[in-house]
What does this fold into?
Amino acid sequence: LGLVGSEMCIRDRDMTDDVAGRVLLQREGHLAWVTLSHPGRLNAITVAMWHELRDVFTRIAQDDALRCVVVRGEGGNFAAGADIREFPVERADAAGVQRYHREVLAPALRAVAECPQPVVAQIEGVCVGGGLEIASQCDLRIAGESARFGVPINRLGFPMAPDEMRGLLALAGRAATLAILLEGRVFGAAEARDLGLLTRIVADADVAAQARRSAERIAQGAPLAARINKRLSARLARGGALTEDEYQDYFSYADSRDHKEGVRAFLAGVDPLFSGD
It folds into this structure.
């Protein structure tokens, strides 16, 4: 789940400034930024960071005032996957491997996927392994032209775990997912977009600004509608007929203040003021 291979290998000389990794939460009005921060390691994700990611998104999910979340990496890279230096301890045997993937990574990825607010991935530089898994659980992915992607774990001797593969499969489908995993290549943003992994590509210098603008556009819309769109799209992707309760959940917006406000503002030719009610 980390960077491997000669093209993007992290060497010992790059670790001189290594400090403990963190997942940072910053709030600005209706927006929140979640930052993967592990200086000296291209934001490689430690066990502690996976736990923090889960906890941060659990807190965000409970904050009805927030309307959009941006996930980003610190220092010009998104994330270089899981921190492989922890593997000899955290994945030392079969029990440890299961615990690591099912009790550490899976809950963190699930917290991102189940966040009721829309989530935008701001992707710069390296986005591989666990970094790509996190980005795959976001709703929109905006990347710089020079961003790099891949899951080169074939060089580490293990396959992608089931709960980690779900997000990649949902975006790229089975054929592309297998190509990514079997070849283990690290590839560019244009190919990632062609595979369905990205919403759009922008100039490297514009990634942060474009991610913010996307979040602001989302926040300007009706938050109740955004949350219903997330729930409904996830439910329809699972297939099968909707229950009556699920139909009623969808139509629950009908009597909302925001629905009335949106229609009123449109007819009056003014911008709506949504409250989330």
